[in-house]
Amino acid sequence: MTASTPIYLDTNVLILLLESQTPESKALQELLKRSRDHETPPFITSALTFSELLVRPYRLGQTIIAQEYRYLSHGNAWLSVAPVTASILDVAALLRAERRALKLPDAIHVASALSAGCSHLMTADTGIGPVSALTHPLVGAIQIEPLTLLRPDLPTLTSLLQSIAP
Asked: What domains, with CATH codes, occur in the chain?
């Protein structure tokens, strides 16, 4: 993990981080704590993430959690927040055209990760797969960094923690 290639965090990773008390959530918290010294945030997500995150707290009247998510939506020392642009939506449509089972929000997350130049996307969603090449029907091959998936499980999180050991 380097500052030049942030890891993209899917919505479910932030839910795990902020709403769970599991060994995985504790490992994620430690990973973020150790990652704060980078020049640029080592993690990135989409503005879409916060729309997804806020549904449950709004529905259940959980104002403290909603405020935490809204505060986080501005980014911080460990997280950048990318806007959803027309080009991201175009690539998301291309991904959905190629992978019929891929849901639109997931396609937007993958397209956002590709747009940000991420080499890794962390997600618990098994409906999201790796991406190594894209060919657009109107413009041809799209230059992308191959996107590798990381699962927010203990072996993966432990490996990441070891890679940035103090």
From this structure: 7-159 (3.40.50.1010)
